[in-house]
Amino acid sequence: MLIPERHQTTGLKRKINTSTSTRKKSKVQHHSLESLPWKSVSRPAETGLGGDDGILDLEEVDDVEVVYEQTDAGRVVTFNVLTAQSQDSEQVKGPETSPTDVDSPDAVAADVEDQDTLLIEPFDSQTLLPDWNSYSLHPRLLRSLHAKQYLSPTPIQSKALPFAMTNRDVVGVAETGSGKTLAYGLPILHYLLSQAQPSRKTKRRIRALILAPTRELALQVSSHLNMCLHAAEAAVKPEAKDTAIPDRTKSKKHKDKGKETENREQAESTLATPKRPPLVSIAAIVGGMSTQKQHRILDRGVDVLVATPGRLWDILEDVGVMDDDLAKQIKSLKFLVLDEADRMIEAGHFAELEHILRLTLRRSREDEIEPEFNDMGDVEEDLVEGKDDMQTFVFSATLSKDLQRNVKKRTRPKGAWNNKNKTSSTLDDLLLRLDFRDPEPEVIDISPEGGIVSSLKESRIECLSAEKDVYLYYFLLRYPGRSLVFLASIDGIRRLMPLAELLGLKAFPLHSQLEQRQRLKNLDRFKSTPNSVLLATDIAARGLDIPAVDHVIHYQIPRTADAYVHRNGRTARAMRRGFSMLMCAPDERRVVRALLGSLGRQDTDIPEMSIELSLLDKLKARVQLARKIDSAQHKIKKDNHERNWVKEAAEAMEIELDSDFMRPVPLRSIAGSEDEQDRPTKHKAKKQNTKTAALKAELKQLLSQPLIAKGISTRYITSGSRPIVDDLIAGEYHEAMLGMKKAEAGSDLIAHKPKTTKIKEELEEEEWAGIGS
Ligand SMILES: Nc1ncnc2c1ncn2[C@@H]1O[C@H](COP(=O)(O)OP(=O)(O)OP(=O)(O)O)[C@@H](O)[C@H]1O
């Protein structure tokens, strides 16, 4: 029997599988749902729970007996967790005993049993992965790398691993999408796997803390590291899986009943084999997650915690009281990682980050701090001081050269923590406050000149701000693919979304005012929809590893040179090709120049895109119509909202509204004899609706018309100034734009021609006009 339950606050869905098995079981009574051994459920697409259900996570618990008791205090419900008696008694005692659950949405446990299988299966890493051989990685990791076909380390991985694997601190700077996560992740997992205690009896302590600036990045990092533990199992055990979960459709066809029973018994015994705690558990704690869930993660114990500084600090200092146990765990870390460190300062996490980092200081450094500044709340006197062997990894695609030099030279001012400006505001300050244990942290900078990845093609379009919608629409139609469009504000996204919808584009928004699960859902939809558009603010600029983003479009220019580099980094990842387009209005040109200047480049280094102007005009008509519809719809919504508000307010105050307010439309008003202004609201609304419907029909008609470039004859395909017959035969014709060849965005660029002085002067004037306007 299944008892489904929905946790509204968390977007978490759970089901309790009550036991029907006749095996001899022992019972452990639980009084709260929270203490049950929940485990995350994978949601394959075929179950219909593939993520489009708006649920952040799905959890289930097996073998639970739900008992209702009538007591003096009323009806009480308790839960008996049934456990096979043969099972290791450790399994039912506490947090560690829960089967394979690491309580992360994507957490997949690497249990001891799998570990055994993995080690028994022959795997010749010398032959299969010669390029990874010199790092002596744990066999489980090697298998995963092979399963993922990561046949050789990326440059940042091959440079960082020798240091990171030998207790050194590493500051790594490498281009976007170059595999930095595994550059620090592999050494951590290697260490933890090598130290793993299969029959541990105590709660695990956090040994690696990875801080990331955004929720999405934190979840992605935890998922990426979990993949590293899990990929090997998937590759090694397909037959084992077949046995464990018998395919009922296949067994129906099975003629030999005896054989089927044997198979099933074998499978059941495999299923009944007790699952043991994971060797290494990785979990993420981010904003938007329910407090119960994050407490459960921490109560159970986790080896690798990936967190956003804001949320971690919230938990550490819940209602002003320090969580001593968690603080102690952070004080005894073996690994501290700052991923996208520079972004963490931009994201306004500086204070929280600073507080967390302070916990990782060694006593010798702590003593340098003024007593009042050292007051971290109710921290016990006997706190474990920051461990001497902690390794620190700082990774980003953009870290200033000055900063790298400072870290290398250790020119940290003595008593940096005692700075009277207690909250410093730059990354330099932050890094100088890190207590690297390594006297000389290894700084590896292999970022490309100007921050631009070699497999990326850049371009720009110069147009007026008001024309950006049309140019964007042109681009999206002309170059189908997955396009990530960056805007400077949430309002901009809210304005573009309905336009995109009306024009038939598959667009999804991503910004900080969306609920967490909505953000993840939109990301998932973008990932799984070919030819889709993600309209995003800069929360999507850093670290997100969305596979196959074909184009990055800077609809509004980035605020900083780093933002330009990181936004571009969402495409052209892992040596794939990518394309970026900067839309630059006259009043933005100056900023763009300065921005590129700080990367040692000129705006003229970026070629312009060629545009088929005859098509652009046709698209203009569509966009204008869509805007009209949008503003009409907006007006209807606004009127309805106001009417409802007045109605609700009147009801609340028990006032009767004037009957005209909701009066049915009188005939004479329909006939048009009444003054427009005096007509009842309902009639106005009806009129607006009709107008909008007419506009929509007009747009529908426009959208259905083929877009034909100038000089194309559709009647005589061999004639016209641009005969299209050859393209049609070769199958190279553009499906949405007749007369255009199918092409990649990067193939339509115009090489820069130096401008004559006269044109230059005109442009300068236009710029100033732009600023004025
Ligand atoms: N050795 C490898 N071989 C092939 N692909 C790899 C390897 N290591 C990582 N990858 C893949 O490269 C992609 C980018 O990795 P990752 O997200 O770690 O990049 P990053 O450098 O952190 O990027 P960003 O700076 O944008 O955060 C991922 O999809 C990852 O799976």
TrEMBL record:
Residue intervals passing through the bilayer: none
Gene3D superfamilies assigned to the protein according to its UniProt record, in alphabetical order: P-loop containing nucleotide triphosphate hydrolases (3.40.50.300)
A single GO cellular-component term on record: nucleus
Record-annotated Helicase ATP-binding domain positions: 161-417
UniProt catalytic activity: ATP + H2O = ADP + phosphate + H(+)
GO MF term (any one): RNA binding
EC number of the protein: 3.6.4.13
GO term, biological process aspect, one: ribosome biogenesis
Motif segment (Q motif): 130-158
Feature: compositional bias, Basic residues: 12-30
SMART domains assigned to the protein according to its UniProt record, in alphabetical order: DEXDc, HELICc
Pfam family, one: Helicase_C
Protein localization: Nucleus
Ranges for domain DEAD-box RNA helicase Q: 130-158
InterPro entries tied to this protein: DEAD/DEAH_box_helicase_dom, DEAD_box_RNA_helicase, Helicase_ATP-bd, Helicase_C-like, P-loop_NTPase, RNA-helicase_DEAD-box_CS, RNA_helicase_DEAD_Q_motif
Superkingdom to which the source organism belongs: Eukaryota
Keywords: ATP-binding, Helicase, Hydrolase, Nucleotide-binding, Nucleus, Ribosome biogenesis, RNA-binding
Region (Disordered): 1-33, 87-106, 238-273, 670-689
Annotated Basic and acidic residues bias: 238-249, 257-267
Residues in Helicase C-terminal domain copies: 469-617
Similarity field: Belongs to the DEAD box helicase family.
Protein name in the entry: RNA helicase
Lineage: Eukaryota, Fungi, Dikarya, Basidiomycota, Agaricomycotina
